[in-house]
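Follow-up to my post from last week.
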Amino acid sequence: MRLRFVPEGAEVRVPSGTPVFDAASWNGIAIDSTCGGHGTCKKCRVRVVSGELPVDTVDPRAFTAEELRDGWRLACRASARDDLVVEVPPLQTRPKAALAGVGRHVILRPSVQKRHLLLPEPSLEDQRPDLQRVLDALDDLEPKASIELLRTLGGTMRAADFDVTAVICDEDLIDLEPGDTTDRRFAIAFDLGTTTVVATLVDLESGQPAAVRSMLNRQQPFGADVITRISTTMLDPQALSTLQERAHETMAELTEEVCAEAGVDPAEIYEITVCGNVTMMQLALGIDPEPLSMAPFIVAAHSFPSARARDFGVQVHPRAPAFIFPSLGAYVGGDIVAGMLATGLTRDRRLRMFIDVGTNSEIAVGSNERVLACAAPAGPAFEAAQIKCGMRAAEGAIEGVRIDDDDIGLEVIGSTDAVGICGSGLVDAVAELVRCELLDHTGRFVPDELAAEIHPGLASRLTRVGKERVFVLHWRGDDPSASVFLSQRDVRELQFAKASIATGWHILLRELGIEAGDISQVLLAGSFGAYLTPLSAVRIGLVPKLALPRIISAGNVAGEGAKIATLSYRERAETQSILREVEYVELSGRADFNDLFVDQLAFPG
Amino acid sequence: MRLRFVPEGAEVRVPSGTPVFDAASWNGIAIDSTCGGHGTCKKCRVRVVSGELPVDTVDPRAFTAEELRDGWRLACRASARDDLVVEVPPLQTRPKAALAGVGRHVILRPSVQKRHLLLPEPSLEDQRPDLQRVLDALDDLEPKASIELLRTLGGTMRAADFDVTAVICDEDLIDLEPGDTTDRRFAIAFDLGTTTVVATLVDLESGQPAAVRSMLNRQQPFGADVITRISTTMLDPQALSTLQERAHETMAELTEEVCAEAGVDPAEIYEITVCGNVTMMQLALGIDPEPLSMAPFIVAAHSFPSARARDFGVQVHPRAPAFIFPSLGAYVGGDIVAGMLATGLTRDRRLRMFIDVGTNSEIAVGSNERVLACAAPAGPAFEAAQIKCGMRAAEGAIEGVRIDDDDIGLEVIGSTDAVGICGSGLVDAVAELVRCELLDHTGRFVPDELAAEIHPGLASRLTRVGKERVFVLHWRGDDPSASVFLSQRDVRELQFAKASIATGWHILLRELGIEAGDISQVLLAGSFGAYLTPLSAVRIGLVPKLALPRIISAGNVAGEGAKIATLSYRERAETQSILREVEYVELSGRADFNDLFVDQLAFPG
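User reply:
Got it. Predicted complex:
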């Protein structure tokens, strides 16, 4: 279905049932609105110039019969089910916008809204209840209040002489503040990773980050990956609450840090958004993750019930809600949905491939026509956990390897000597060894004699530690076992990991009925993806063989998605469309998986 | 607007916009339904035989185009805006009903519902999330869950081998229980009075009370009436939380008692309903009551935001909601709305008057056409608080007085000697003294000489305590001051109290444009009203002069209303209609109040 907006002229293709307002938003066309799309502010007036758009139940409250006949509709309530040409009136106020995600232009419409109100004082002629007095003054919004708010609302009104600011989050009136505080409103976007947790304090007035901090997830001592952490909870009945506390501590500490850095009072933070994989979310919320860990891999819920910041142990405004990204499956979690939002994967015309590389890797392929997603259990190679000289991407880790003319160039993190190798270094090393033919296409180190023949300058590096053949990347003395090396088994680990991912995207391409060459762009996501050399990724067959400019390190798109969700309730609503529209493909138990997997173990020719 | 139901033939008059389902319910005509009127079960099918009933947005999901043309509609979604004849199909299941309130026949449709579910086990082919699996099985309901429930839901499902019972309250899925527990569901109806708190444990399967207990409100030491309690909170910043705790303790103790008496596990109580005056509600919820106590008398909210039993300190099911009756104004609270519900005041064709007699008295007059309500500040006379020999209606209190042939007959509570006089005794005594002309119509004791002349046998009782004239009701020795007597000032107190009430209903009659003689029935409500002698009430002018059978002691109608709310979500919804339809008349500051009040001070001729 096609939608054309006049006078701008932009044309977009959207799934049937998409609200006209959203279709416009995604294309950077702003339509007036203040109520959050609940049909209450009646400002998002558009006129249908061609095509059919049924009258919604709310429309007659906004328009006269004549206007309805002329095609006027509220854009937030109008679901396009037909090709349409829609006229958008000039804006009453020019909306602010911010750049976020992968080159996305996000119109600022935070879920957190403030309204400065000068309320009429009660009298015997006007005995409206305190709450009603506030709600009546919010004529474009119809939020709900809580018993908790009611405990302070009347006192605040009277102490402030009825000069107050209402704070609304989505459908909830969460506070009434004395005086005019409309210039102060903040949110925190959390990317709750298994390894690293990132908090971005967002100034909702400007749309700009006010502070960003990251730290290791304090659950780390309970296991490097999600499976280990789930196992911990299965072995010890206390572990779930311990892991929950650790996640909360991590988020609470980051909250303190970003507030201190930006000089923001935690009470001015009215909302948090949280993305993470399903295990991280369930652990943080105290929901038993065991069913995630074994077939048939069942999540508690795709969309979590409404939650508050305090459900994550985050001490901001006491009634601040928490927006939690929905998940598509046990291993395609809210972090991936956030990544899809940040990259606009489901709204872009181009066929794109999204890969979040990690112990569990997530893959999505598609365009605005159709998107498929799957999870590929890559194992820990990319985290370098089971690699002999593997280490996290920290000081002393080899993160880049280049082999030129029998010489080895290493990129090492920090101004220090190499002490180990991290995931991106591993991929580089293997890719370079394949290129210079010291590794054959099946992943075996070539015999010593052949090595000596083709690369006499490198042959001494191909040696043994114990019984295993290794390639020394960085000598520490003469002893290979004391040096930083790559073992035959390390290469195998990487082969399994990359084959798992490649099998995933091959299956998705097959399901979509397309070829790898049809892909316009590959987005490498996640903290690991950001450091991966596109050339090496192609060489080992981790990603399709495409022109290098088409392979993009997209960075921490999950965190960007979480940020976008603070900036726009419309973008946030898109996560529900992603949940509805993206088709999850379960790889476990597929008949074609093993065959394809074996094919992918080899390195491309 | 008139609605006729065929084949039953019952005809009812309802306000425009009333759902057809409700109109039927109020008249004891049962229509199938399981979803709580949310338009999800699609069972409440009715056919419009004559009149116009627009198609609702949900109707096309329930009916074919042909059925819609034939007039089929969902009764819960159909708002009557025209005279209608509606055909009600025979019931699929015969609904249970219970007698409650003032002769009301209540069809059992508790908000608390249970569904026994045999869920399909998850598999790689059916990876639906745990929550979705439950929701999908509840095809006639679409409840929401909470994070808290999600913490146990998956574990319960698995431990019970997917044989579970879902517990739904209104729009919330509050629990999943192992096995089939559908025969156990309970609620507690609380009447949270200033003096007495009553808890009725209701078996929602049978509609019958399983246990009833009452006790004094533990806030009593902080003042006998609402104004004193509010003053306490104004003088001491800690008092609000103390009073809140006291209310919670009272309700918690009653909960324990009714559970013990009926052998019910508190976890089987899935809901509470609470009615009380606005001060009691705000104190129990920790909301500052100060604005209630002084002009312009402002309540925090007419309808409180959604609350849980634990907001009242009641330890039943941890997610049990609390239904709180809405209030019409600072002094016409949820107890009165509950009373209106129990008496059917707003749905009855007869013109009726409802009076809840107390320190603050509430009065409502009307029929299904129109109802007006007001609050009359009667002062403490009826509680006998400022009466010289006054006491609460407890052992030793004179509760009835009769004067025959110069002899005095007393009804005393308990098998004991009279030690004081309670409210109903006071009214009786004054009424009898007026009848036998020892009190003149202005409320003065007649001169001693005249008393000796007309009632020689009583004249010795008309004497003095200090300088004040008194009438001794019960001698204790020869000393009048040691006896139980009625003083001139006591009579004045009662005059002020009854004049306040009479002024209230006179103003309502005037606003309605009717005469006292048009009233079909007077309902005396509240614990005091139940003990009042109708004849005495007429004699002192507290109620209009009507034939005595028309004056009914309706008993604790507030508690009955709270009970009805546990039995039927439809009846409960009626409280919102009461809030919308009943017109609150503020007596403070009315120009005609003082004139009328002075007129009403005298006793009727």
